[in-house]
Write a structure and sequence with these properties.
It contains four helices and 18 strands. The chain is α+β, with helices and mostly antiparallel strands and about 325 residues long.
């Protein structure tokens, strides 16, 4: 063998070159360490590949299982999720306003009532009172629960050998009712499955809901139109009085939906060619007076004017005119 530094030959038992003193053993050790490092790198790369493959495979499998086990129920603007390995949709009872899911002898029924006249809250009260009139036993006083920013009324009652848990929500002239019905013997053990379902209740159009809340907040208050009338808008109801005295024996009221939109501007009581941001209320009055029919939606546009007030333009309803926001 020869020394790698000076080229002089040496015997295998020598550890150092007799000519230049270079360590011969060090080269062998370095070569051995280099090979060991290479093996280690290969092992680490293989292990990382195996771990990555397992992670991707398990994640894909989990997503497939989640998709397979999740069903959606959409009823007009409302939606909820359910485990379709436990609950089966009753297609024979399906219609556009009523959907039923079944699990053994238990049942979930989702219903909505549309184009409700008058006060939504009062209508919900009447639905709850109807249970008592049908000899159902109310097991717990109706309470309110906020689910995904929506305030639902919840009531529990007994109907024969079944216990029912019912959620009610009213909005946009519609009322949604979600009812869980189970035999007395299984109610306590299965009601948690229903709670998992109703905790997914949400609007199918969340952006619209937020936009309408912002529009509503802009017009809540009292509006004086002088001899053209006096409007009072609360978070849930619209009132039209003939004047600022607010005579309760001579008032028109109803529910409404507020929307952000674009309207033609108004100057000195006349429309202009310019379009401005405004708020539109779709009002459904509860009693047909002042040229208003309870079966129709009446539109009110709150149009800002250049002097800082608003012009309220009413269609199929009370008079239009420039209004001052009193409070």
């Amino acid at each position: 063998m020869k020394c790698k530094k000076c080229g002089k030959e040496f015997h295998n038992e020598e550890k150092y070159c007799s000519n230049c003193g270079t360590s011969i053993l060090g080269d062998a050790v370095n070569n051995s360490q280099s090979k060991s490092n290479n093996y280690l790198i290969i092992v680490i790369v293989v292990l990382l590949f195996v771990v990555f493959t397992l992670f991707v495979g398990n994640n894909t499998k989990r997503k497939i299982e989640e998709k397979r086990h999740t069903g959606n129920v959409v009823l007009k603007d409302m939606v909820f999720n359910y485990d379709n390995t436990l609950w089966v949709e009753d297609v024979d009872s399906y219609n556009a306003k009523n959907i039923i899911l079944k699990h053994n002898d238990s049942k979930i029924q989702f219903t909505y009532y549309q184009d409700i006249d008058g006060n939504i809250e009062s209508y919900i009260d009447s639905l709850i009172e109807a249970h008592q009139n049908n000899n159902y036993t109310i097991l717990s006083s109706p309470n309110k629960s906020v689910i995904n920013n929506l305030e639902w009324r919840i009531v529990k009652y007994q109907n024969g050998n079944q216990i029912c848990l019912e959620l009610l929500y009213g909005y946009d002239f519609d009322i949604y009712v979600l009812t869980y019905m189970a035999n007395n013997s299984v109610y306590d053990s299965e009601v948690e499955m229903f709670k998992e379902i109703y905790n997914t209740l949400r609007y199918n159009i969340p952006d619209r809901f937020q936009t309408e809340i912002a529009a509503q907040n802009e017009v809540i208050g009292e509006w004086d139109l002088g001899n053209m009338g006096y409007y009072v808008i609360t978070p849930k109801l619209f009132y039209y009085f003939k004047d600022r005295n607010k005579n309760l024996s001579d008032v028109q009221s109803g529910t409404y939906i507020a929307k952000k939109t674009r309207c033609r501007g108004v100057e000195n009581g006349y429309p202009t060619d310019e379009y401005v941001d405004c708020v539109r209320l779709d009002v459904k009055f509860s009693i047909g007076t002042y040229k208003v029919r309870s079966s129709s939606i009446n539109n009110f546009e709150f149009i800002p004017t250049k002097n800082g007030n608003y012009y309220i333009s009413a269609f199929n309803g009370p008079s239009s005119g420039e209004a001052v926001k009193v409070k």
